[in-house]
Design a protein that fits this description.
By secondary structure, this protein is mainly α. The strands form two sheets. Strands 2-1-3 form a three-stranded antiparallel beta sheet. It has a two-stranded antiparallel ribbon with strand order 4-5. Strand 4 and strand 5 form a beta hairpin.
Length: 378
Protein backbone atom coordinates (compact mmCIF):
# COMPACT_ATOMS: atom_id res chain seq x y z
CA UNK A 1 0.00 0.00 0.00
CA UNK A 2 2.88 2.33 0.77
CA UNK A 3 4.39 1.75 -2.70
CA UNK A 4 1.09 2.60 -4.33
CA UNK A 5 0.89 5.98 -2.54
CA UNK A 6 4.54 6.93 -3.04
CA UNK A 7 4.04 8.51 -6.49
CA UNK A 8 1.19 10.56 -5.07
CA UNK A 9 3.46 11.81 -2.32
CA UNK A 10 6.10 12.85 -4.84
CA UNK A 11 3.48 14.70 -6.90
CA UNK A 12 2.28 16.50 -3.75
CA UNK A 13 5.83 17.49 -2.81
CA UNK A 14 6.53 18.72 -6.32
CA UNK A 15 3.43 20.92 -6.29
CA UNK A 16 4.35 22.23 -2.85
CA UNK A 17 7.85 23.18 -4.01
CA UNK A 18 6.52 24.89 -7.11
CA UNK A 19 3.90 26.74 -5.01
CA UNK A 20 6.51 28.03 -2.57
CA UNK A 21 8.86 29.02 -5.39
CA UNK A 22 6.06 30.84 -7.23
CA UNK A 23 5.40 33.09 -4.24
CA UNK A 24 8.89 33.52 -2.88
CA UNK A 25 10.17 37.07 -3.04
CA UNK A 26 11.78 38.74 -6.05
CA UNK A 27 15.55 39.33 -6.39
CA UNK A 28 14.87 43.08 -6.27
CA UNK A 29 12.95 42.98 -2.99
CA UNK A 30 15.45 40.55 -1.48
CA UNK A 31 18.35 42.88 -2.35
CA UNK A 32 16.54 45.88 -0.84
CA UNK A 33 15.71 44.21 2.49
CA UNK A 34 19.26 42.82 2.81
CA UNK A 35 20.65 46.30 2.17
CA UNK A 36 18.23 47.87 4.68
CA UNK A 37 19.17 45.40 7.42
CA UNK A 38 22.93 45.84 6.92
CA UNK A 39 22.57 49.04 8.91
CA UNK A 40 24.39 49.07 12.26
CA UNK A 41 21.09 50.11 13.86
CA UNK A 42 19.97 46.47 13.88
CA UNK A 43 23.30 45.08 15.07
CA UNK A 44 23.35 47.49 18.01
CA UNK A 45 19.67 47.18 18.90
CA UNK A 46 19.40 45.90 22.48
CA UNK A 47 16.18 47.41 23.83
CA UNK A 48 13.88 44.76 22.36
CA UNK A 49 14.26 40.97 22.49
CA UNK A 50 11.56 39.61 20.21
CA UNK A 51 8.11 40.24 18.74
CA UNK A 52 5.20 37.84 18.65
CA UNK A 53 2.67 38.25 15.86
CA UNK A 54 -0.19 35.78 16.03
CA UNK A 55 1.47 32.49 16.99
CA UNK A 56 4.81 33.27 15.35
CA UNK A 57 7.83 34.70 17.18
CA UNK A 58 10.31 36.95 15.33
CA UNK A 59 13.86 37.64 16.50
CA UNK A 60 16.77 39.89 15.59
CA UNK A 61 18.60 36.86 14.25
CA UNK A 62 16.49 36.79 11.09
CA UNK A 63 17.08 40.53 10.59
CA UNK A 64 20.86 40.26 10.96
CA UNK A 65 21.28 37.25 8.66
CA UNK A 66 21.43 37.36 4.86
CA UNK A 67 18.13 36.44 3.21
CA UNK A 68 17.54 34.70 -0.12
CA UNK A 69 14.34 34.72 -2.17
CA UNK A 70 12.76 32.02 -0.03
CA UNK A 71 13.51 33.68 3.33
CA UNK A 72 13.14 37.33 2.27
CA UNK A 73 9.52 37.63 3.40
CA UNK A 74 10.41 36.45 6.90
CA UNK A 75 13.15 39.06 7.14
CA UNK A 76 10.80 41.82 5.93
CA UNK A 77 8.14 40.80 8.45
CA UNK A 78 10.71 40.71 11.27
CA UNK A 79 12.18 44.14 10.49
CA UNK A 80 8.74 45.72 10.07
CA UNK A 81 7.40 44.28 13.33
CA UNK A 82 10.50 45.32 15.29
CA UNK A 83 10.39 48.85 13.87
CA UNK A 84 6.64 49.14 14.53
CA UNK A 85 7.21 48.12 18.16
CA UNK A 86 9.94 50.73 18.57
CA UNK A 87 7.68 53.39 17.04
CA UNK A 88 4.82 52.31 19.31
CA UNK A 89 7.04 52.74 22.35
CA UNK A 90 8.09 56.20 21.12
CA UNK A 91 4.47 57.23 20.59
CA UNK A 92 3.40 56.06 24.03
CA UNK A 93 6.20 58.13 25.53
CA UNK A 94 4.98 61.20 23.63
CA UNK A 95 1.34 60.57 24.58
CA UNK A 96 2.28 60.52 28.28
CA UNK A 97 4.15 63.78 27.75
CA UNK A 98 1.05 65.32 26.16
CA UNK A 99 -0.97 64.33 29.22
CA UNK A 100 1.62 65.92 31.50
CA UNK A 101 1.51 69.13 29.47
CA UNK A 102 -2.29 69.09 29.54
CA UNK A 103 -2.19 68.75 33.34
CA UNK A 104 -0.03 71.87 33.58
CA UNK A 105 -2.53 73.74 31.42
CA UNK A 106 -5.24 72.49 33.79
CA UNK A 107 -3.32 73.91 36.76
CA UNK A 108 -3.27 77.29 35.04
CA UNK A 109 -7.02 77.08 34.50
CA UNK A 110 -7.73 75.98 38.07
CA UNK A 111 -5.67 78.87 39.49
CA UNK A 112 -7.96 81.29 37.65
CA UNK A 113 -5.30 82.25 35.11
CA UNK A 114 -5.78 82.40 31.37
CA UNK A 115 -4.89 79.01 29.79
CA UNK A 116 -4.82 80.36 26.22
CA UNK A 117 -1.03 80.44 25.75
CA UNK A 118 -0.62 76.97 27.28
CA UNK A 119 -3.40 75.58 25.07
CA UNK A 120 -1.96 77.13 21.90
CA UNK A 121 1.49 75.72 22.74
CA UNK A 122 0.04 72.27 23.27
CA UNK A 123 -1.94 72.38 20.02
CA UNK A 124 1.26 73.33 18.21
CA UNK A 125 2.91 70.24 19.67
CA UNK A 126 -0.04 68.07 18.67
CA UNK A 127 0.29 69.39 15.12
CA UNK A 128 3.88 68.11 15.09
CA UNK A 129 2.67 64.76 16.40
CA UNK A 130 0.28 64.44 13.45
CA UNK A 131 3.21 65.00 11.08
CA UNK A 132 5.29 62.49 13.01
CA UNK A 133 2.43 60.02 12.52
CA UNK A 134 2.74 60.56 8.76
CA UNK A 135 6.48 59.89 8.88
CA UNK A 136 6.04 56.73 10.95
CA UNK A 137 3.18 55.42 8.83
CA UNK A 138 4.92 55.97 5.51
CA UNK A 139 8.24 54.47 6.65
CA UNK A 140 6.41 51.33 7.83
CA UNK A 141 4.39 51.20 4.60
CA UNK A 142 7.53 51.37 2.45
CA UNK A 143 9.19 48.61 4.49
CA UNK A 144 6.06 46.44 4.48
CA UNK A 145 5.82 46.82 0.68
CA UNK A 146 8.90 44.58 0.40
CA UNK A 147 6.78 41.66 1.62
CA UNK A 148 5.91 39.69 -1.52
CA UNK A 149 2.18 39.04 -1.37
CA UNK A 150 0.25 36.33 -3.14
CA UNK A 151 -2.45 37.70 -5.49
CA UNK A 152 -5.71 38.70 -3.77
CA UNK A 153 -4.25 38.04 -0.33
CA UNK A 154 -5.62 40.11 2.54
CA UNK A 155 -3.01 42.53 3.88
CA UNK A 156 -2.98 42.51 7.68
CA UNK A 157 -2.63 45.79 9.57
CA UNK A 158 0.37 44.86 11.71
CA UNK A 159 1.93 48.26 10.92
CA UNK A 160 -0.69 50.24 12.89
CA UNK A 161 -2.03 51.75 9.66
CA UNK A 162 -5.54 52.50 10.96
CA UNK A 163 -4.28 53.83 14.31
CA UNK A 164 -1.72 56.12 12.66
CA UNK A 165 -4.36 57.34 10.19
CA UNK A 166 -6.55 58.40 13.13
CA UNK A 167 -3.56 60.06 14.80
CA UNK A 168 -2.93 62.09 11.63
CA UNK A 169 -6.43 63.59 12.00
CA UNK A 170 -6.48 63.95 15.78
CA UNK A 171 -6.70 67.76 15.56
CA UNK A 172 -10.14 67.45 14.01
CA UNK A 173 -11.29 65.33 16.93
CA UNK A 174 -9.88 67.64 19.59
CA UNK A 175 -10.79 71.06 18.22
CA UNK A 176 -14.37 71.94 17.32
CA UNK A 177 -13.68 75.68 17.46
CA UNK A 178 -10.32 77.49 17.76
CA UNK A 179 -9.33 78.53 21.29
CA UNK A 180 -10.08 82.13 22.23
CA UNK A 181 -7.92 84.33 24.41
CA UNK A 182 -11.04 86.06 25.68
CA UNK A 183 -12.92 82.84 26.38
CA UNK A 184 -11.14 80.46 28.80
CA UNK A 185 -14.07 78.06 28.44
CA UNK A 186 -13.04 77.35 24.82
CA UNK A 187 -9.60 76.31 26.08
CA UNK A 188 -11.12 74.19 28.84
CA UNK A 189 -13.17 72.19 26.30
CA UNK A 190 -10.10 71.58 24.14
CA UNK A 191 -8.03 70.49 27.15
CA UNK A 192 -10.73 68.01 28.19
CA UNK A 193 -10.80 66.60 24.66
CA UNK A 194 -7.01 66.24 24.69
CA UNK A 195 -7.22 64.40 28.01
CA UNK A 196 -9.88 61.95 26.73
CA UNK A 197 -8.33 61.34 23.31
CA UNK A 198 -4.72 60.83 24.41
CA UNK A 199 -5.67 58.61 27.35
CA UNK A 200 -7.58 56.43 24.88
CA UNK A 201 -4.52 56.35 22.61
CA UNK A 202 -2.27 55.36 25.51
CA UNK A 203 -4.58 52.42 26.26
CA UNK A 204 -4.66 51.32 22.61
CA UNK A 205 -0.92 51.55 22.01
CA UNK A 206 -0.20 49.82 25.33
CA UNK A 207 -2.51 46.97 24.31
CA UNK A 208 -0.64 46.72 21.01
CA UNK A 209 2.72 46.58 22.78
CA UNK A 210 1.66 44.20 25.56
CA UNK A 211 0.06 41.55 23.36
CA UNK A 212 -3.62 42.24 24.08
CA UNK A 213 -4.08 42.56 20.31
CA UNK A 214 -2.36 40.34 17.72
CA UNK A 215 1.16 41.64 18.42
CA UNK A 216 3.35 41.50 21.53
CA UNK A 217 6.59 43.48 21.83
CA UNK A 218 9.07 42.07 24.33
CA UNK A 219 11.33 44.93 25.47
CA UNK A 220 14.41 44.54 27.64
CA UNK A 221 13.83 47.93 29.30
CA UNK A 222 10.90 50.27 29.72
CA UNK A 223 10.97 53.96 28.83
CA UNK A 224 10.31 56.63 31.42
CA UNK A 225 6.90 57.53 30.02
CA UNK A 226 6.54 61.01 31.46
CA UNK A 227 8.10 64.43 31.69
CA UNK A 228 10.01 64.84 34.98
CA UNK A 229 7.82 66.90 37.30
CA UNK A 230 8.64 70.47 36.43
CA UNK A 231 8.17 72.08 39.83
CA UNK A 232 9.71 75.30 38.58
CA UNK A 233 6.98 75.57 35.96
CA UNK A 234 4.27 74.90 38.55
CA UNK A 235 5.81 77.51 40.84
CA UNK A 236 5.94 80.21 38.17
CA UNK A 237 2.35 79.39 37.19
CA UNK A 238 1.32 80.26 40.71
CA UNK A 239 3.20 83.54 40.32
CA UNK A 240 1.47 84.28 36.98
CA UNK A 241 4.74 84.10 35.02
CA UNK A 242 4.43 81.60 32.22
CA UNK A 243 7.42 80.11 30.42
CA UNK A 244 6.92 76.84 28.56
CA UNK A 245 10.26 76.79 26.76
CA UNK A 246 11.52 73.76 28.68
CA UNK A 247 8.44 71.67 27.91
CA UNK A 248 8.35 72.71 24.25
CA UNK A 249 12.04 71.83 23.86
CA UNK A 250 11.43 68.46 25.52
CA UNK A 251 8.95 67.57 22.78
CA UNK A 252 11.18 68.90 20.01
CA UNK A 253 14.11 66.84 21.31
CA UNK A 254 11.98 63.69 21.45
CA UNK A 255 10.71 64.17 17.89
CA UNK A 256 14.19 64.97 16.55
CA UNK A 257 15.53 61.82 18.20
CA UNK A 258 12.90 59.65 16.48
CA UNK A 259 13.46 61.26 13.06
CA UNK A 260 17.26 60.97 13.29
CA UNK A 261 17.53 57.47 14.77
CA UNK A 262 14.69 55.70 12.96
CA UNK A 263 14.38 57.60 9.70
CA UNK A 264 17.63 59.39 8.81
CA UNK A 265 20.02 56.78 10.22
CA UNK A 266 18.03 53.95 8.64
CA UNK A 267 18.34 55.72 5.27
CA UNK A 268 14.67 56.33 4.60
CA UNK A 269 14.13 59.32 2.34
CA UNK A 270 11.38 61.41 0.78
CA UNK A 271 10.68 59.98 -2.68
CA UNK A 272 9.59 62.85 -4.94
CA UNK A 273 8.15 60.43 -7.51
CA UNK A 274 5.49 59.17 -5.11
CA UNK A 275 5.48 62.08 -2.62
CA UNK A 276 6.07 59.71 0.27
CA UNK A 277 8.72 58.47 2.66
CA UNK A 278 10.46 55.55 0.94
CA UNK A 279 13.23 53.04 1.57
CA UNK A 280 16.69 53.53 0.06
CA UNK A 281 17.61 51.33 -2.91
CA UNK A 282 20.96 49.54 -3.15
CA UNK A 283 23.03 50.19 -6.29
CA UNK A 284 22.34 46.77 -7.79
CA UNK A 285 18.60 47.45 -8.19
CA UNK A 286 18.64 51.13 -9.13
CA UNK A 287 17.86 50.32 -12.74
CA UNK A 288 15.68 47.26 -12.15
CA UNK A 289 12.06 47.97 -13.10
CA UNK A 290 9.76 47.25 -10.13
CA UNK A 291 6.78 44.93 -10.57
CA UNK A 292 3.18 45.97 -9.99
CA UNK A 293 3.27 43.94 -6.78
CA UNK A 294 5.90 46.34 -5.37
CA UNK A 295 3.08 48.87 -4.76
CA UNK A 296 1.23 47.76 -1.62
CA UNK A 297 -2.41 48.46 -0.86
CA UNK A 298 -1.39 50.87 1.89
CA UNK A 299 0.98 52.73 -0.44
CA UNK A 300 -1.76 53.18 -3.05
CA UNK A 301 -4.07 54.65 -0.39
CA UNK A 302 -1.48 57.16 0.77
CA UNK A 303 -0.61 58.36 -2.73
CA UNK A 304 -4.26 59.12 -3.44
CA UNK A 305 -4.68 61.05 -0.19
CA UNK A 306 -1.61 63.32 -0.35
CA UNK A 307 -2.23 67.01 -1.23
CA UNK A 308 0.23 69.79 -2.15
CA UNK A 309 -0.06 71.53 1.21
CA UNK A 310 0.43 68.26 3.07
CA UNK A 311 3.60 67.52 1.09
CA UNK A 312 4.95 71.00 1.89
CA UNK A 313 4.11 70.62 5.60
CA UNK A 314 5.87 67.28 5.74
CA UNK A 315 9.02 68.60 4.07
CA UNK A 316 9.18 71.60 6.42
CA UNK A 317 8.72 69.29 9.39
CA UNK A 318 11.56 66.99 8.29
CA UNK A 319 13.91 69.91 7.62
CA UNK A 320 13.20 71.35 11.07
CA UNK A 321 13.91 67.97 12.69
CA UNK A 322 17.36 67.82 11.06
CA UNK A 323 18.24 71.43 11.85
CA UNK A 324 20.52 71.49 14.88
CA UNK A 325 21.31 74.51 17.04
CA UNK A 326 25.04 75.10 16.43
CA UNK A 327 25.37 76.47 19.96
CA UNK A 328 24.18 73.14 21.42
CA UNK A 329 25.68 70.54 19.09
CA UNK A 330 28.38 70.15 16.46
CA UNK A 331 26.51 67.28 14.80
CA UNK A 332 25.59 67.87 11.16
CA UNK A 333 22.98 66.12 9.06
CA UNK A 334 22.77 66.03 5.29
CA UNK A 335 19.23 67.24 4.71
CA UNK A 336 19.57 66.42 1.00
CA UNK A 337 20.00 62.74 1.89
CA UNK A 338 16.57 62.65 3.52
CA UNK A 339 14.98 65.27 1.26
CA UNK A 340 16.41 65.45 -2.29
CA UNK A 341 16.99 69.08 -3.26
CA UNK A 342 14.31 69.03 -5.97
CA UNK A 343 11.70 67.53 -3.64
CA UNK A 344 10.24 70.95 -2.97
CA UNK A 345 8.92 70.92 -6.53
CA UNK A 346 7.54 67.40 -6.31
CA UNK A 347 4.22 68.56 -4.94
CA UNK A 348 3.33 69.81 -8.42
CA UNK A 349 2.22 66.29 -9.22
CA UNK A 350 -0.24 66.31 -6.34
CA UNK A 351 -3.84 67.39 -6.38
CA UNK A 352 -3.83 70.85 -7.94
CA UNK A 353 -7.23 71.63 -6.45
CA UNK A 354 -5.49 72.06 -3.09
CA UNK A 355 -3.42 75.03 -4.26
CA UNK A 356 -5.63 77.42 -2.32
CA UNK A 357 -4.24 75.88 0.89
CA UNK A 358 -0.60 76.36 -0.04
CA UNK A 359 -0.23 79.49 2.06
CA UNK A 360 -0.87 77.41 5.18
CA UNK A 361 2.19 75.24 4.61
CA UNK A 362 4.81 77.83 5.50
CA UNK A 363 4.78 76.73 9.15
CA UNK A 364 4.39 73.00 9.72
CA UNK A 365 3.94 73.47 13.46
CA UNK A 366 0.98 75.86 13.13
CA UNK A 367 -2.26 73.98 13.76
CA UNK A 368 -5.15 74.25 11.31
CA UNK A 369 -8.63 73.77 12.70
CA UNK A 370 -11.72 72.21 11.13
CA UNK A 371 -15.11 71.91 12.73
CA UNK A 372 -16.58 68.47 13.21
CA UNK A 373 -20.14 67.49 14.00
CA UNK A 374 -19.50 64.56 16.28
CA UNK A 375 -16.25 63.48 17.92
CA UNK A 376 -17.54 59.94 18.22
CA UNK A 377 -17.86 59.56 14.46
CA UNK A 378 -14.18 60.09 13.82
Amino acid sequence: MFLIKLPEIWVFLLHAILFIEAYSSTPRKTAIINHFCENDFWKNLSTIQEVRYGRTYYSLESINSIAHKGSSNGKVRSATLFLSCLYAQDLRQIFYMVNDYQNICKIILETKNNPYECTINLLGIIKKITLLATVIKESLISLDALYHMRPNTKQHDYILYDFLSRLQKVENIIVRDPPSKDNPKSCEIILKNIDIVFNAMIIYISNDINGDLEKKCVFTTENDDSIPQDWKTVHIIQNKIFNFEYLNNKFDDEIKKIIIEKLYNLHFYFNKNINMIDIELPDEVLYVTPNNSDMSIFMEKEQRNKSKSEVAELLNFLKAALTVDKNLSNEKFEIARLIPENSSDSSDSSDSSDSSDSSDSSDSSKPRYKKIKDIGNQ
